[in-house]
């Protein structure tokens, strides 16, 4: 069985190739359509990247399972010792709009834990990486989260998360909300200390958060489900019950402030 470091090298090279493919479509009016069922948009670039990643990664690791936003569900992954968890383009709406904040999110799960992860933003030339036993890096340099307190914390989340009923006593704490389209990148921005926390009270697809959760953890943040439980991956549902990612002090304070 390859070491996580070997899987990380494979993921990194595959992510760079994915970026080259995506950039051929970016800001060139790619064909796009809605997937229906509130699944959001998809473009020809998403599918081209997905096909290239699946061909490369499956050839290199034929015994690994495969879970991707743009592939048909394959129950065989549940019996695999390791499984790729892939979002070919995270932040598709940003990609369609010509914004540079889209990313490629690639991870390997061993059992229900992530052991290797890459989040690559080709238009920004940013590559975040981590293994379960190593540091979190941005373009090869170590990163770390902030140690911010609750008051004034900058939290990456969507508008509805600030509705009073989500918070104890209906009181939203004195935090500042900001937003980025790519969920994977939000976790990495917390990991590198650009923002203090990332929060989702909705169930999240595994491919959106698998890679970023390990990067955040190895940087020194806590990355849990919205209720504080451990994230588990390669599940039958392929979803995690929300997420809360922050430095240890702020993570506890946000958890205490949320309504249960």
Automatic annotation (TrEMBL):
The stretch of residues making up the signal peptide is none
Q: Coiled-coil region(s) at which residues?
A: none
Q: Where along this sequence does the record place binding of Mg(2+) 1?
A: 69, 87, 89, 208
Q: Which domain of life is it from?
A: Bacteria
Gene Ontology terms, MF aspect: inositol monophosphate 1-phosphatase activity; metal ion binding
Q: Which Pfam families match?
A: Inositol_P (PF00459)
Q: Does the keyword Transport apply?
A: no
| Cofactors demanded by this protein | Mg(2+)
Q: Which GO terms describe its biological process?
A: inositol metabolic process; phosphatidylinositol phosphate biosynthetic process; signal transduction
Keywords from the UniProt entry: Magnesium, Metal-binding
Q: Does the keyword Kinase apply?
A: no
Locate the residues binding Mg(2+) 2: 90
Q: Which family would the database say this protein is a member of?
A: Belongs to the inositol monophosphatase superfamily.
- For this entry, the protein name equals Myo-inositol-1(Or 4)-monophosphatase
What organism is this sequence from? Paracoccus tibetensis
Classification from the root reads: Bacteria, Pseudomonadati, Pseudomonadota, Alphaproteobacteria, Rhodobacterales
């Amino acid at each position: 069985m390859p070491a996580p470091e070997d899987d990380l090298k494979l993921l990194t090279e595959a992510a760079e190739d994915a970026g080259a493919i995506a950039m051929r479509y970016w800001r060139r009016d790619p064909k796009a359509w809605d997937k229906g069922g509130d699944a959001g948009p998809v473009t020809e670039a998403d599918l081209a990247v997905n096909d290239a990643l699946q061909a490369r990664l499956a050839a290199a690791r034929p015994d690994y399972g495969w879970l991707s936003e743009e592939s048909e569900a394959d129950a065989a992954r549940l019996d695999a010792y390791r499984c790729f968890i892939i979002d070919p383009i995270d932040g598709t709406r940003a990609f369609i709009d010509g914004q540079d904040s889209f990313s490629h999110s690639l991870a390997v799960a061993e059992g229900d834990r992530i052991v290797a992860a890459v989040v690559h933003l080709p238009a920004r030339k940013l590559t975040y990486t981590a293994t379960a036993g190593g540091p979190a890096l941005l373009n090869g340099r170590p990163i770390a989260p902030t140690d911010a307190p609750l008051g004034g914390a900058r939290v990456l989340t969507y508008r509805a998360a600030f509705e009073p009923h989500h918070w104890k006593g209906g009181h939203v704490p004195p935090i500042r909300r900001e937003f980025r389209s790519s969920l994977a990148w939000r976790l990495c921005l917390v990991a590198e200390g650009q923002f203090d926390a990332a929060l989702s009270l909705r169930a999240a697809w595994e491919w959106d958060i698998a890679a970023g959760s390990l990067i955040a953890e190895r940087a020194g943040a806590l990355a849990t489900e919205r209720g504080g439980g451990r994230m588990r991956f390669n599940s039958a549902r392929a979803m995690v019950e929300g997420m809360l990612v922050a430095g240890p002090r702020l993570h506890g304070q946000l958890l205490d402030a949320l309504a249960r």
